[in-house]
Amino acid sequence: MQNDDMKVVTVMTRKGGAGKTTLMQAITSAAVKDGKRCLVLDADPQQALYRWFHRVEIDDPLVKVQQLEFSSDLEKVIEEAWQSGETDIVFVDTQGAAGAWADDLAASSDFLVVPMKLSEKDLSITKDTFNWYVGLRERTDDPTALPSLRIIFADVPNKPTMAQKKIEDEALRLFPIMENYFMHRNQHMDADADGFLHDIAEKRRTSRYALLRTHAKHFDEAVEEAQDILSEILGAE
Fold first, then answer.
1. Whole-structure pTM value
2. Is residue 52 assigned to a domain?
């Protein structure tokens, strides 16, 4: 039975190192924590997300991950997921480069999310990505059928420098910026080594070692942040 409530969230940017995969790891953890059935598609030739799932041996019935070699295959894979009725959210990780593939991804997505670090390089590349989206709206016959696009500040330090604050202000002036920021957290490095944030939090909470138990709250905070981000993404219609 088809799942008409299924949503497709694509994380994209035109440069590598912007935090796409880390963001995908976090919001997928948030979705699984909330009991959502997830299909994760890795369309990045480097396959960082796909390799992460297998390296940390994630084995959760609520999440499946597969490689997506060609963006043109996305529509078929999404159609199959919708027809099966076994998926609530499809997450798509993309390559950090420009190309015609972006139009294919947009056509099959409900939400486009662009992570942006507070750097001049990221600001410049985000301008290119945003201009592509504006051009896409001008090229299509029905702009209302296109997915929403939101930029999220990623890897944000607790105490930004003056230069970073200046870039933040400029981006807020130019782009539709999400209210929730994706903060720099050491817990994301632990997740890259050990798996989902919420699973690590539970392991720390039940550890025999008191010191590790005290760390659980930091992972809980990271999960809560990711849940807020995902809620904002899914509400952006």
1. 0.94
2. yes
